[in-house]
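Wed. Picked up where I left off yesterday with DNA-(apurinic or apyrimidinic site) lyase. The coffee machine is broken again, so keeping this brief.
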Amino acid sequence: MCQREKMWHKLPCARSELELLFTLCGGQCFRWKKTGNDEWTGVFAHRVWKLSQNSEYILYEFFQGYERESSKRETDTSKRNKSGIRSKGGIMNKTLGDADRNRNDNNHVGLGEEVRKGSTEEELLRKYFQLDVSLADHYEEWSKKDPYFKKSAEKFTGVRILAQDPVENLFSFICSSNNNIARISSMVEKLCVLYGNKIANVDGVAYYDFPPVSALTDPSVEKTLRDAGFGYRAKFINQSACKIIQMGGTRWLEHLQSLPYVEAKTELMKLSGIGAKVADCICLMSLGHLEAIPVDTHIYQVAVQRYLPHLKGRKTITDKIYNEIGDHFRSLYGPLAGWAHTLLFSKEYWTEFCI
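Structure written out below (tokens, as returned):
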């Protein structure tokens, strides 16, 4: 047994049910980095996490700082608090005060509620990876319906949809417009460093929470982000933050989780910088609308080559084509079509870029 397996916490989970590489680094979330041999470090639920796995377990440790700055922060990084204590075996020996724990009550939804209720880290991981969904059962069902899915799942198994914080997910995908994963990750990190609250230093690296919506509403935000290389996305981020606050803040996002999928998508598209594909990403990855199908060039090519050959040769993905592709996959795979779609996307992405 390696040293990591002796020291880290263990969460029972077969590798066939969760493949960290495909799930964490496939364009769903932009806070995870490979930091070692089969090891990833990232941020969610106000914690820094290190994850690894073997055939039977997810191995994990987590870190929390015990001093935080207020939500109205100075953007001069030289003035930041450098505190942050690495926990022994993942358990912090100092805790946040009640006032600090509740600081984000009106700024974050998603995993925030579980954090406030004092869920264990294992429960947070289970929710984040949605481990209540059995991939084996669904893969069997989808494979019977679709020979191409069956073939794809033989190599690209364990691809899960993350249950992300809607605020982080929304602004991350505003950054995704005409962009690649590396640059999106860089922009998301800049948002956290500029406007988020520090969590901890881990292995010499400072990690920050994603900022609350209110931190992105100041008129100075657009110029700051433009200077940081965000381009036209800077305006979209500032405008969307202001619009979300006007519509009720995170209560509005919570409301979108309760709406039917099409209505939630329509509401999201009222925000600056959010079109159909970005709205579908947000619906699928943080609002719980698991029938959402984001159609990008990868999925378009799969649809043309394998399912809808009459679309071949179309120069642009019109609204009509976009909806036809989504409706086809929803009809084929059912209410969790977004999960099946994500495996097909992963096959195209990893085949093209990495494998």
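Quick read: Residues 66-118 have pLDDT under 50 and may be disordered.
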